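User: Could you write out the 3D structure of this protein bound to magnesium ion? I've included everything you need below.
Assistant: Certainly. Input first, then the structure.
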Amino acid sequence: MTPFDTFIMVDWSGGNDRGPRPVKDAIWACVASNGQIGEPIYLRNRGVAEAWINDTLDAALAEEQRVCIGFDFPFGYPIGFANAVTGQADPFALWRWLETRIEDSKNRNNRFDVAAEINARFDGRGPFWGNGLKRDIEGLPRNKLDYNNIFPDRRVVEEQAKGSFTCWQLAGAGAVGSQVLMGLPVLERLRRRFSGDIAVWPFEKWEAPIAIVEIWPSLFVVPPPDEMIKDAWQVQGVARALQALEPEVLANMLNVIAPEEGWIVGVGHEGMLQKDTVLAPPPLRNDCFALPAGVNWAPVDEALTLLQSRLFPVTPVETLPVKNALGRILANPVLAGRANPPLPNSAVDGYGFAGNVPAGAHRRPLIKGRAAAGVPFSGSVPEGSAVRVLTGAALPKGVDTVILEEDVTATKDIIAFNGPLKKGANARRAGEDIEAGDVLFDAGRMVLPADMALLSISGVSDVQVRSKLRVAVLSTGDELVEAGGAASNSQIYDANRPMLLSMIARFGYDSIDMGRVVDDRVALSDRLDMAADQADVILTSGGASAGDEDHVSALLEQAGAMALWRIALKPGRPLALGFWGGKPVFGLPGNPVAAMVCTLIFARPAMGLLAGEDWRDPQGFDVPADFEKSKKPGRREYLRARIRDGKVQVFASEGSGRISGLSWADGLVELEDGACVIKKGDMVRYIPYASFGI
Ligand code: AMP
Ligand code: MG
């Protein structure tokens, strides 16, 4: 038996009317009922939303539906607050209290004043901050400076739900505090209107015709596609996820005791929600490798363009502390949490004072004390005086300019120096590097060591990243034996698998070693099944052409979604692209030189897209050739190459059996599709291995 027939998910808003056209930061709702999921509904203000909720619940009750209705704001405050305001440790007492105080109309409400009124009760130690209005409100600080809250900053559940906001913050991007103040009165009226039929979880048992629950979409819903409004996407995502849960799983999730602070549905059970359809992006279409009709010989660039237009991320999203995010791919744009520098500070060791100093000799009295990095000078510096400042120190009040200590003659209480000195000299402006809210990185970027510094200085503690792409690697061929083992003269050691596995590791993905398979369809089919179970992508080598022993292409063909890509490329044989068990398969040529080049040129950027990365063409450099070569038109060539004395050499033999050339080289020379004649000293395009990430 399902606990609920209908799920109504609401993304609330604390602000004013947002107009008739659907926009973000308004109220959005979504109804999922009896297995169907509705389109997101736009509700332009709270009055409209409350009326819509009342009507929707009336209709559901009339049909004897059991309803779970979710709101994305806290139902309770951190422990102690309800009692301090109402004299009762009862969240509903606070709901009633707020319902009598909050005034709400389309374009005006008194939430900031009510917050200030509450703050006033705590003797300057009230919990609320973040005045979002132009006018100052006594007792409601604009920011968290000098904050001295006597209540916990977060509820227990918020300690566990990484990235959630505190309900004391009323304004600023992501702040939830205003929604709580403007939402609880509405919930209080719902309780009264549907009294007897309604339960508020987890304060009351949820087994009632209508259960109100607290949700937080960012707990598990993946970021929306570019063109979609986040709130709309999220309500639909939560409705879909909750509806998809097994009844016992949902009942177990609702089995929570949190009598005063409340709880967010799913915290502690994130895996169950993420496993579901919401977090996992939609699967690739299995015709995504199909070549346009009539194409069976594609230039490299056309093949790449086709891959680029068809592939998208297949990996779910997880939240990681910045320090663990090296090499991971950002799933969302990352915004700066604070400015750098946060306050104006000194760029040098010296003396600080106010303003422009004209040319000529100057003397200024030194006031006592100094400003150092992390140890600010608390007083203010009178006009005409100076104070000792050190590099990185916040500029004291009255200081906007610093003179280098090397340019000063100083005694204990006076400095002498020569002008001119411009206002602002040797000082760094607040935010001159980064402003709070700046976009530090877009989604799709791999986090690099330098980014650690920028994320850290900008106050970013966690980032949403893609899970690592899991890539299975297997080799095929009757002639192959495991490297290091015994081999007869007719056998060869498997060279591709160790090479491919280590390339995958260098790309930053999880490599899964699926071993070797003989040229036998049953064995190969079983092994592909295993690989598809464990991985997001499968790389095979060998057996990818169209001959008798080319079992990879034969099986992919049978599976019905194979495209044999004949790419105008040397070295390279046909590339068999297909699907097995819903997972994309790159059937690489068996020849190690061709396998490596095809991986670098095709599989790498394709896997990048699947992993959530931006499409990246490898960075190449034009370097004078230290070789001669002429080439016929019709296909692109990659030569094993290396740089010596500022010139690029190529490996003596172009034979694709010469594996030694791969190690001799430190990159590839790329020769265009057309004909070319290269003489020594001509510029050619050289792409170092490092540009491919290996
Ligand atoms: P195939 O694509 O299966 O026709 O193989 C082409 C050539 O590559 C043959 O000479 C194979 O012996 C060789 N080959 C295939 N797989 C590997 C491997 N894993 N390691 C080294 N050589 C291989
Ligand atoms: Mg073979």
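Residues 475, 477, 479-480, 492, 494-497, 541-544, 589-592 surround adenosine monophosphate (ligand 1) (CB under 6 Å).
User: Perfect, thank you.
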